[in-house]
Amino acid sequence: MRFSAPVETPATVADLLERLEGISPHRIRLHPAPGTAREEDVVAVHDREGRLCELVDGVLVEKVMGYYESRVAAILIQLLGNFLHQARLGIVAGADGMMKLAAGMVRIPDVSFVSWSRLPDGRVPRAPIPNLAPDLAVEVLSEGNSPAEMRRKVAEYFAAGARQVWLVHTDPPAVEVFSSADRSTRLGEADTIDGGDVLPGFSLAIRDWFERVERG
Predict the structure, then answer these.
(1) How far is 61 from 37, CA to CA, in rounded Å?
(2) Over the Cα atoms of the chain, what is R_g?
(3) Region 105-123: what's the mean pLDDT?
(4) ω into 172 cis (within 30 of 0)
(5) Of 63, 126, 141, 157, which sees the most CB atoms within 10 A?
(6) Contact 98, 108 (CB under 8 A)
(7) Has residue 4 got a pLDDT over 80?
(8) Contact between 113 and 79 (Cβ < 8 Å)
(9) Inter-residue contact 135 to 35 (CB < 8 Å)
(10) Which bin fits 89, alpha (ψ -120 to 50), beta or left (φ > 0)?
């Protein structure tokens, strides 16, 4: 795995919080020192503590996801997996599928779809944190996710080459479907998501999705 050089260490806590745009201080790790963390630190925390941390400008930020949100993501993974088994467009990964989007930037979408054409030699990478951008990134919003944090995440996904991003709200059920960092459509419980050019042939009724979450 290639590891990136650390970015500049913030001078004050205020500088750090401003840089991280709305991320709760409770999620910001101080070891290694903010601004000095690397990709190998992401892997080390996962291996040592079983915790998932994203790497944001050289800072380890703990990923938040409650049990219900995990269930929402798991049902989507199941549905996408069934679809992709037939369509053979690519692969789906879950909430521990780490991706290096840029130098000093590791994100972990709750659900990600990557087309076969993006995979090196058409094979699933074995590196813990591959240099890989998702065609589709899905984030299921938890209580600890601020609007500023999610705006930044959406922008980063598209800057890295994502073609679509979904932000999933759970109460009430709704999905913001982004086709670019500044263009989105909000779909409610009575609507259906169309996979479009990213997942041609895939569609999902949001009400059906959440009924599966609740009742199986």
Answers:
(1) 10
(2) 17
(3) 95
(4) yes
(5) 157
(6) yes
(7) no
(8) no
(9) no
(10) alpha
Q: Cα–Cα distance between 103 and 204 in angstroms, integer?
A: 35
195 within 8 A of 201, measured Cβ to Cβ:
yes
- 167 burial type by CB count under 10 A (0-12 exposed, 13-18 middle, 19+ buried): buried
Place of tokens 């932000």: 167
Angle subtended at Cα 41 by Cα 9 and Cα 113, rounded to the nearest 5 degrees: 105
In contact, 45 and 32? CB cutoff 8 Å: no
Question: d(Cα 89, Cα 96) in Å, to the nearest integer?
Answer: 21
Q: Residues 37-74: pLDDT tens digits?
A: 999 999 999 999 999 999 999 999 999 889 999 999 99
Report how far residue 142's alpha carbon sits from residue 86's, in angstroms, rounded to the nearest whole number. 32
**Token pair for 194:** 């169309």
Distances from the Cα of 150 to the Cαs of 29, 157, 181, 192, in angstroms? 19, 10, 11, 23
